């Protein structure tokens, strides 16, 4: 049973926040900003509104895979500071509905994930513990804030994945079973109001990169796309799931679906690289190297050179050179990719292929490196 308005927000605020989230999912960030702008009169009383601004910046960072570039993350970090500031104000006033603690915990949770991406392990540990404490306090104040369970479950899941000695030293009392965290995540998806879609997307990546279960990931992302068919980000997750489950024909169909959405104007032009990469990826899975090469070249030539799918297209062009026996050409591309901003593991893969040539029999099983 979903709580429709667990924070007792004014109807205009609740509806505006949900509309801003919907705009986020389809990556229409301007529309999301416009929805939040209309809520400015309530911003001082409800930190959910500046947190909505943080989510827009977070989705921008996530979609562009900017996590490891602090300059590009600056707007997101500034939005996090504002979100924390407004949450603290409400907490100081008594936080009658738990909104302040939920927003503080959720904001710290996002920052903890950002610190992990940048290998700041101790910082992610301290921020994460503080996040969980605030989310638990929010639930104590208001048991209907099921959205808070998402951050708690994600925290518990990843702590349970740590080596036993690390968990004993730093996370005494934490469960060693990731399934415990997973149950909490699923409860938040079932009962939450604001976070279920984002949590399902995060869980899709968990299934791909941590559980290594692309079919479970596909089930999740198929549901997301059924609800949000014009979301390029959910489309990108489906590409990974289909590639990893070796569904080449379905991958080609998905590539065509995305090309049609781009042509119809439902995908923004900035997703051109993704669409060409998708076409190349289907051919790459089939080992049709020449057709893959053509599509990857289009991704590079017709898109912003900083686009993450351009980086991936270059990496795969290096792979194709390895398949053809052009080791010198392949190594030159891998060195170029190694110097670019890391996008979902491209740096690690370039390092791997510099040491040992790409072999489709070994390396074509999964698209991304392990989580």
Task: Summarize this entry quickly.
This protein is mainly alpha-helical and 371 residues long. It has helices spanning 11-25, 29-37, 48-64, 74-92, 99-117, 121-141, 148-160, 164-170, 178-191, 196-209, 214-227, 232-244, 248-263, 272-285, 289-301, 308-323, 327-339, 346-355, 360-363.
Verbal overview:
There is one protein chain. The protein contains 19 helices and no strands. It has 371 residues and is mostly helical. Helix 3 packs antiparallel against helix 4 and helix 16 packs antiparallel against helix 17. The longest helix has 21 residues. About 4% of the residues have low confidence.
Descriptive tags:
70% helix; 371 residues; mainly alpha
Shape: globular
How many helices? The count is 19
> What structural class do helix, strand and pairing data support?
mainly alpha
> What gap, in angstroms, lies between the N and C termini?
33 Å
Low-confidence stretches: 163-175
Which strand-content bin applies to the residues? under 5%
Instruction: State the share of residues found in helices, binned by percent.
Output: over 70%
Annotation, overall tally of beta strands: 0
What's the gyration radius in Å? 21 Å
Order of helices and strands: HHHHHHHHHHHHHHHHHHH
